Amino acid sequence: MFSRLSQLARHISRPLPNYAHTSAAAASSGARGVMTSSSAADERNSRTIHTAACLIIGDEVLGGKTVDTNSAYMAKFCFGLGMVLKRIEVIADDEDEIVEAVRRMSNNYDFVVTSGGIGPTHDDITYQSIAKAFGLKLKLHQEAYERMKKLSKPHPSQPNFSWDEDTPARKAKLRMVELPIDESRDLKKQVIFPHEDLWVPVACINGNVHILPGIPSLFEKLLDGLKPLLTTRLSDPEGKGNYRILISTPQAESEVATYLTELAGRVEPKGVKVGSYPRWGKNTNTVTLVGRDQEFLESLVAEVEKNVDGHRVAVEGEDDEETNANDQ
Fold it and tell me: From its record, what is one biological process in GO terms (predicted)?
């Protein structure tokens, strides 16, 4: 099994936040949160992207009401671009939780995405919490507001809604375009509109924290829309990303463990990761080879197939047959 226990331990652990990125002149941990310098934020906004993290925010996910698919989409997005997704966390709609997590992630990873908590209701507190985390104020973003008025469609339950009347419904809608803004920085670096047909903005806070909605269709479209802005900052500017080779084996993991351990140590200097994944109730397990050098990966296939008595597959499970048990 490919280090699953150690991976689980890492994800369960909650390291103490490191606020070393906060400048001495700007440091403030009072009601306005931790302030960071505009130069530091600009550096984060332009640095080469090696690592990424995803923060899923929502009581509905933790309560089992909603199944999170955005983290899986984020993982595929990063894999395709060659970013190393180092952490995925799911937290509650709780200000303290959001503040702690987003500060830590901004400090530790190059590209951070949050999902959820930016709607019109009282429990949508992502914008205000992230503003507090970095000592920013919420300000009405005029372009986002104009786009909202132009592109959003009236809800059937609000046939008489008017943008010109100061009503509770209008105030609720404005919560979605009141964004954390650093007035010392270029506004265009802080608010991005990846699609002309969507009014929904992507707020980029502290140079590397990108706030996305939790609705999967919007999350996916907006994340994909960020790709042109990210490719020039990748360690591989051509954005070729990673390659994955799947090899199906009838052998138990315990049977091939010695060989895979030796192989992993041999190919690690070449940037290749070797994985082994059990498939309970099936007659095959899966060995994976992941790396950026496609030619080198291909050169390993015949050797691996021979040593695990397996064969390459395009999709995991394409050669499945049901069995009653699976020896681990």
Answer: flavin-containing compound metabolic process
Indicate the SS3 state at residue 64: coil
The residue behind tokens 């955005």 is: 70
Rounded-to-integer distance, Cα 24 and Cα 128, Å: 24
Give, to the nearest 10 degrees, the angle between helix 70-81 and helix 216-230. Answer: 20
Task: Please check whether residues 221 and 249 belong to one and the same domain.
Answer: no
What CA–CA distance (Å, rounded) separates 85 from 265? 22
Whether the Cβ atoms of residue 273 and residue 291 lie closer than 8 Å to each other: yes
Residue 279 lies in domain:
243-313
Which pLDDT belongs to residue 33?
Answer: 45
Helix (H) or strand (E) holding 38, with range, is: helix 38-44
- The two beta strands, 209-212 and 202-205, are antiparallel
pTM: 0.78
Rounded average pLDDT over 71-97: 96
